[in-house]
């Protein structure tokens, strides 16, 4: 139960307690009390921390507000740039109302200064914003960069593809505009010239090989399946991609990869009455050259169609392909030069046909080709050499000698220059070495033409010229010295052949002149020492040919000697032996003679001569020289029909060969065959003017016309 006294008691107690507390709180604390001082410091630090917390919070809040306001100002700036001036102005005003930050205020004022409407630009007029323009431009930049990167990658692939093949010419498309298969013949002809041209051998004459300065590598088209054509009608797709489209793309890519490679393209067409071939080359630098060749139709069919024979098709293909091959094999050559060299090649083909008996009537045509070649190009010295050789084979020895002497003068050594520096050098360039070899061949062939005039003075001159070609006058030249050793060996063999002619001129050589008086001739034969001298010529030739036979055995395994060169040397050895036996038999041991011993000796020599010349005919296709010698031996052995057959073969090779006509007519006259004599006289060419005195006497004796109709 609540009582008033209790309330009073409790109130009094509370007042006393309150008074005590106030007394204690207000009482001063001792300064030196550690407890009191620690409590005070802690309270102060706590208060300071609370203030810092409050300040940091205010600063962070202010920073957030500032960032928000700056973001609003940035948006306002974008609107101003985009032409939304009112919207930008409203945003800036709202920000200024909410802030007094100097940075925000400064940025806001700057925006307000720029937030002024401008005159509409051309972009505004067409309704295109700068942002759109920049987006469009960026797209184009990306596209260009992408295309450039792709192009660069493809060019690198093209370079890597072409680099290992930059020295190999690619034979591309040869368009066939005829039904003759000429394109295939052209491709075959291009591959033909990579090989070494076979040398042509003609008795003692030394021919030059037609050679190119270099032999470029060719990549001929291979038979392959063209997917573009194979899949053209195949309507198959994978993932929306057509197979034929892939094949066409591959074909185009293949062509693009080969675009920078050296290539040859062309076409074969029929133009009017001619068959034409056009070839164009393009090297890695983009330089182009075009050559052409044409041939007329040989006949017309009953339906009016033009007819081209196989030889003409092959000829026009070879002409065009050789010109092109020459241009790509010799740097800095011209089309005119290629035309001249091709004409030289054609002349050599005709000459070889004559030499090997394939078409004996081509000698005159070959001569015209060589003359045209050196006319087209004055420094095509091979043409002069071959022109001289052809003239010699046509028995125009003086004209041939002129050509050889011209070459000697033109190719006279004036010092050698190196290929790299163009300065004087002990090492000759390839061209200089070749020209030196050409000059030596011209000198050698001049000696042969002098010899083939078959006159005493010319024969002595030939011996002198040949001796100048024999290294140090060696009996056996060093086969390691090229080209001197080959030419030196042939010069030795030719000199033996020249010595073999001395019995023919024994009177001039031993007596100083030639007598036709029978007694005088017999007296000279019996004069002491003359027979021995003739025998010494035989031994000299036998000794020289024995040395050359030893050389021939040694070079059989020498790869630097070609088979044709070995055959020519073997031919020259046998020809020298045959000549010395024939000349001794027909000029010294012939009538007048004394005693059967001389007659037997003569028969022995003639037999040896026939055997030697027969071996010559087996080694090399017999030319006029061997045919004439075989005929002469046969006639001396009284084998008239055999001898006349050989002479007729010589006439078929050269229809103007006067000696063959004369010897046939004389042989049949000695046999009393007048009808055959008249037939031969009438067969002599209408444009021929005989110069052999005894042949002219036969015309007069039988009252035959010198120029029959």
Question: How would you describe the overall organization of this protein?
Answer:
The protein has 709 residues and is of the alpha/beta class. It has 27 helices and nine strands. Strand 3 (237-238) and strand 4 (241-242) form a beta hairpin. The longest helix is centred in the N-terminal third of the chain and has 48 residues, at 34-81. The relative contact order is 0.04.
The profile of the biggest β sheet is: 5 strands, mixed
Instruction: Report the β-strand fraction as a percent range.
Output: 5-15%
Q: Radius of gyration, Cα only, in angstroms?
A: 55 Å
Structural class assignment? alpha/beta
Strand order of the largest sheet: 2-1-5-6-7
Helix residue percentage:
55-70%
Q: Average pLDDT, to the nearest integer?
A: 80
Distance between the termini: 190 Å
Shape: elongated
Please count the beta strands (DSSP E, at least 2 residues each). 9
Please count the helical segments. Answer: 27
User: Which residue ranges are poorly predicted, with pLDDT under 50 across at least 5 consecutive positions?
Assistant: 222-231, 414-425
Secondary structure layout plus pairing:
Elements: H1 4-26, H2 34-81, H3 85-98, H4 102-114, H5 122-125, H6 130-162, E1 168-176, H7 182-192, E2 217-219, H8 227-230, E3 237-238, E4 241-242, H9 243-257, E5 263-271, E6 274-282, E7 288-296, E8 299-300, E9 306-307, H10 310-329, H11 335-355, H12 363-376, H13 381-393, H14 397-410, H15 430-451, H16 456-467, H17 484-499, H18 506-511, H19 518-526, H20 530-555, H21 563-588, H22 596-619, H23 624-636, H24 640-653, H25 658-670, H26 674-683, H27 693-701
Parallel strand pairs: 1-2, 1-5
Antiparallel strand pairs: 3-4, 5-6, 6-7, 8-9
Helix pairs in contact: 2-3, 2-4, 3-4, 7-10, 10-11, 11-12, 11-13, 12-13, 13-14, 13-15, 14-15, 15-16, 15-17, 16-17, 17-20, 17-21, 20-21, 21-22, 21-23, 22-23, 23-24, 24-25, 25-26
């Amino acid at each position: 139960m609540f009582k008033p006294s209790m309330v009073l008691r409790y109130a009094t107690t509370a007042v006393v307690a309150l008074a005590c507390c106030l007394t204690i709180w207000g009482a001063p604390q001792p300064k030196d009390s550690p407890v009191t001082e620690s409590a005070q410091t802690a309270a102060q630090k706590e208060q300071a921390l609370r203030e810092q917390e409050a300040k940091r919070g205010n600063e962070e809040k202010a920073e957030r507000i500032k960032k928000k306001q700056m973001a609003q100002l940035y948006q306002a700036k974008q609107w101003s740039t985009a032409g939304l001036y009112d919207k930008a102005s409203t945003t800036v005003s709202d920000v200024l109302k909410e802030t007094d930050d100097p940075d925000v205020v400064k940025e806001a004022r700057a925006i307000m200064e720029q937030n002024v409407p401008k005159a509409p630009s051309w972009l505004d007029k067409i309704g295109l914003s700068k942002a759109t323009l920049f987006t469009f431009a960026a797209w184009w930049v990306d596209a260009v960069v992408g295309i450039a990167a792709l192009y660069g990658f493809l060019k690198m692939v093209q370079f890597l593809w072409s680099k290992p093949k930059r020295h190999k010419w690619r034979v591309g498309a040869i368009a066939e505009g005829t039904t003759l298969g000429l394109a295939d013949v052209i491709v075959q002809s291009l591959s033909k010239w990579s090989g070494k041209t076979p040398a042509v051998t003609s008795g003692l004459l030394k021919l030059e090989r037609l050679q190119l300065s270099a032999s470029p590598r060719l990549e001929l088209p291979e038979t392959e399946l063209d997917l573009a054509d194979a899949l053209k009608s195949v309507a198959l797709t994978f993932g929306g991609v057509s197979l034929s489209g892939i094949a066409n793309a591959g074909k185009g890519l293949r062509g693009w990869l080969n675009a920078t490679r050296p290539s040859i393209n062309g076409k074969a067409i029929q133009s009017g009455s001619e068959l034409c071939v056009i070839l164009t080359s393009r090297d890695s630098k983009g330089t182009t050259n075009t050559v052409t060749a044409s041939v007329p139709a040989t006949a017309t069919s009953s339906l009016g169609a033009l007819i081209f024979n196989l030889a003409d098709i092959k000829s026009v293909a070879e002409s065009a392909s050789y010109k092109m091959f020459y241009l790509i094999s010799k740097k800095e050559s011209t089309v005119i030069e290629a035309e001249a060299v091709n004409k030289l090649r054609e002349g050599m083909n005709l000459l070889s046909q004559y030499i090997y008996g394939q078409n004996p009537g081509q000698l005159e045509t070959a001569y015209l080709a060589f003359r045209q070649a050196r006319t087209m190009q004055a420094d095509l010295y091979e043409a002069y050499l071959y022109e001289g050789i052809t003239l010699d084979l046509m028995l125009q020895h003086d004209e041939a000698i002129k050509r050889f002497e011209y070459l000697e003068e033109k190719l006279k050594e004036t010092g050698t220059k190196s290929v790299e520096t163009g300065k004087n050098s002990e090492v000759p360039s390839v061209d200089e070495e070749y020209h030196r070899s050409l000059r030596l061949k011209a000198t050698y062939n001049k000696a042969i033409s002098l010899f083939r005039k078959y006159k005493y003075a010319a024969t002595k001159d030939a011996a002198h010229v040949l001796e100048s070609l024999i290294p140090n006058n060696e009996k056996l030249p060093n086969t390691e010295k090229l080209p001197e050793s080959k030419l030196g060996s042939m010069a030795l063999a030719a000199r033996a052949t020249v010595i073999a002619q001395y019995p023919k001129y024994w009177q001039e050589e031993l007596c100083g002149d030639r007598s036709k008086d029978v007694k005088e001739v017999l007296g000279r034969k019996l004069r002491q020492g003359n027979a021995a001298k003739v025998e010494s010529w035989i031994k000299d030739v036998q000794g020289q040919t024995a040395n050359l036979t030893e050389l021939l055995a040694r070079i059989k395994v020498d790869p630097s000697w070609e088979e044709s060169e070995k055959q020519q040397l073997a031919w020259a050895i046998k020809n020298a032996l045959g000549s010395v036996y024939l000349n001794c038999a027909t000029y010294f041991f012939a009538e007048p003679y004394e005693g059967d011993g001389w007659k037997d000796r003569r028969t022995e020599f003639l037999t040896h001569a026939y055997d030697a010349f027969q071996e010559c005919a087996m080694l090399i296709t017999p030319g006029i020289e061997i045919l004439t010698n075989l005929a002469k031996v046969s006639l001396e052995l009284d084998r008239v029909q055999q001898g006349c057959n050989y002479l007729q073969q010589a006439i078929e090779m050269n229809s103007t060969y006067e000696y063959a006509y004369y010897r046939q007519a004389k042989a049949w006259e000695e046999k009393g065959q007048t009808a055959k004599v008249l037939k031969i006289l009438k067969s002599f060419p209408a444009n021929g003017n005989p110069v052999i005195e005894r042949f002219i006497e036969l015309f007069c004796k039988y009252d035959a016309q010198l120029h029959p109709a």
